[in-house]
Design brief:
The complex is a heterodimer. By secondary structure, chain A is mostly helical. Chain A has helices at about 1-5, 20-40, 45-70, 75, 80-105, 110-115, 120-150, 160-185, 195-205, 215-225, 225-240, 245-275, 280-285. The longest helix of chain A has about 30 residues, at about 245-275. The relative contact order of chain A is 0.12. Chain B folds into 2 domains: about 15-230, 3-Layer(aba) Sandwich (Rossmann fold); about 235-275, no CATH class. Chain B starts with a helix and ends with a helix. The chains are: A mainly alpha, B alpha/beta.
Chain lengths: ~280, ~280
């Protein structure tokens, strides 16, 4: 009976090796595939991805246009506000992409299945990170193109530093995403608000729309300890003075490395804590 | 030899599928699992039986690595599940009506994702095979969220069968199913266990299910193992006719010795005395 069954295609699973980089990559892509299926299943989700950044770009773009016609030279410098908006959106959207994708697993009560599969926690983080960047590109590319056609702002005009800016902002958003995912894992969906509010905490401190020098001196130290501040300072330096200082970006990347390690440690701590106090069981019931 | 051929099936291991030694789980002031020990032999179907709060789900969760024990040891195929779960995760699987597959994805999409997570190279054929076996072929392209409870259970089982696990953990596998569907599911589980010589551990308080499926029953009460044996042997020990009566004795604190007198008397006499 068994031999007969084995001749039928699919009667036996052919299992691939479970350890090594290829196996990890396979599991990460398997999970990303789930998120692609999810996005494909809902046109509304796709529209929503573009809708909010597009609205924000329009609002700040028109403000920029108004200021250019009425105020001083610095404010007239093309793109400071709209550039700030687009770069801020890289940070915000990636963070939200990371956190909401994780929350989605909890909403759908799928986390128990994932955490009992061969998926490792680091691979779950890898999949969330990769998907957050894919989501960001889906959302930002059309908006950046629209900004060019509507306001003549060319994000690519920032040149090569844009790649570094992008990297710094994405890495920061992953650190924040890891912390909020960990807290939600440990304290449940009641802590969901954190996913939204944590990024906004950075908005005044990262000096998205104004230079660091505007802040009180003690707060400037806080601002400079945040990697995105260096991005926004760098952007203004390019747009207003056509000068790019790479030292600031190296500093930001070094800070990011510290925050990323801290973020993963926090996530691991909360995951361990959830396993100790049984929160993962309550997720399923 | 290709990579796929080299890993066609998980290799048989001399280590017991499950070894639990002096396991304790305490949540705050509540002891959910209290110094339990047991070993599961390959190819056996074992039921964890107990009332609400007896510690069944917590025990299964510790076997899965979802809950960290307060003390004691859990080994699955020889691996310490708290530290080395990834070494054996592909040899086990899990199904519970309390854990869903993503609702918006179709059944086929969900099974494809989990085939990737478990590293099933022949995913397309395997999904078709498992779907046919569980009679869900017609449901493959429907959103999982639109299925009935019985259909969802079958889909959950399909996910659990994808990697042909040597150890299958089931948490109340037929909860909220009508008797006909529940019976059908039990038949599938029994068939799977026999054909694969797989080890099944199910948490349940459905006595019919346990009597029909299990070779062995571990009766839990307040986190402790009260009885451990074959269903028929337990029924005889307690002088009862069904496992349900044994279960009621256990949860109401009656020991097998309390019933020793009952066993010698005919049921009609027992009824008269009771009235």
């Amino acid at each position: 009976m068994k031999d007969q069954a084995l001749t039928i295609p699919g009667a036996d699973p052919v299992l691939l090796p479970q350890s090594g980089l290829r196996a990890s990559a396979r599991r990460i892509f398997a999970l990303v595939r789930r998120y692609i299926y999810l996005l494909r299943s809902s046109g509304i989700r796709l529209i929503e991805l573009i809708y909010w950044p597009f609205l924000q770009m329009l609002t700040w773009g028109f403000l920029q246009k108004y200021l250019a016609s009425t105020t001083n030279q610095a404010a007239q410098a093309a793109g400071v506000l709209i550039g700030g908006v687009l770069l801020w959106d890289i940070l915000f959207r990636t963070k939200i992409g990371f956190s909401t994708t994780f929350i989605e697993e909890m909403w759908s009560r799928n986390l128990g299945n994932l955490l009992t599969s061969p998926l490792r926690p680091l691979e779950l983080v890898g999949a969330l990170s990769l998907w957050s960047v894919i989501r960001l590109l889906v959302s930002m590319i059309p908006v950046a193109i629209a900004a060019y056609f509507i306001f003549g702002f060319n994000l690519l005009g920032l040149g090569l530093p844009l790649v570094a800016f992008f990297a710094v902002l994405v890495l920061t958003s992953w650190s924040l995403g890891l912390i909020s995912a960990g807290v939600i894992l440990r304290y449940g969906l009641g802590a969901e608000e954190l996913a939204w509010s944590l990024a906004f905490l950075l908005l005044p401190l990262c000096c998205v729309y104004y230079p660091v020098s505007v802040l009180p001196e003690w707060l400037q130290w806080v601002a400079l300890a945040l990697p995105p501040t260096h991005v926004f300072e760098g952007m203004r330096s390019i747009l207003l003075h056509h000068v790019f200082d790479p030292t600031e970006l190296w500093y930001a990347l070094a800070l990011n490395a510290i925050y990323l390690v801290m973020g993963y440690l926090a996530f691991s701590f909360f995951l361990r804590s959830a396993r100790v106090n049984g929160s993962l069981l309550q997720l399923g019931e | 030899m290709t990579e796929r051929q080299a890993t066609k099936q998980p290799s048989a291991s001399s280590a017991a599928p499950v070894l639990v030694r002096d396991l304790v789980k305490v949540y705050g002031k509540v002891t959910a699992v209290d110094h339990i020990s047991f070993t599961l032999e390959p190819g056996t179907t074992v039921a964890l039986l107990g009332g609400n709060g007896a510690g069944k789900t917590t025990t299964i969760a510790m076997l899965l690595g979802l809950v960290v024990p307060t003390s004691g040891e859990v080994r699955v195929f020889g691996a310490d599940i708290s530290k080395d779960r990834e070494q054996v995760a592909h040899r086990m699987n899990f199904q519970s009506p309390y854990v869903d597959l993503p609702m918006r994805l179709t059944v086929r999409q969900n099974l494809t994702v989990y085939s990737g997570l478990f590293g099933v190279a022949n995913a397309v054929e395997r999904i078709d095979y498992v779907a046919e076996n569980l009679q869900i072929t017609a449901l493959l392209d429907r959103p999982t969220g639109k299925l009935s409870a019985g259909q969802k259970t079958r889909v959950g089982l399909a996910k659990a069968f994808l990697n042909a696990p040597e150890l299958l953990l089931l948490d109340e596998p037929t909860a909220s199913l009508d008797p006909d569907t529940a019976d059908w599911i039990r038949e599938k589980l029994r068939d799977y266990a026999q054909r694969r010589r797989a080890t099944l551990l199910l948490a349940s308080h459905n006595m019919t299910e346990v009597e029909r499926l299990a070779d062995r029953v571990i009766l839990l009460d307040a986190g402790r193992i009260i009885e451990d044996g074959a269903p028929r042997a337990l029924i005889e020990t307690y002088g009862r006719e069904t496992l349900e009566e044994v279960f009621l004795d256990v949860v109401r604190g009656r020991s097998s010795r309390d019933n020793a007198g009952d066993r010698r008397r005919p049921p009609s006499l027992q009824l008269e005395e009771a009235s």
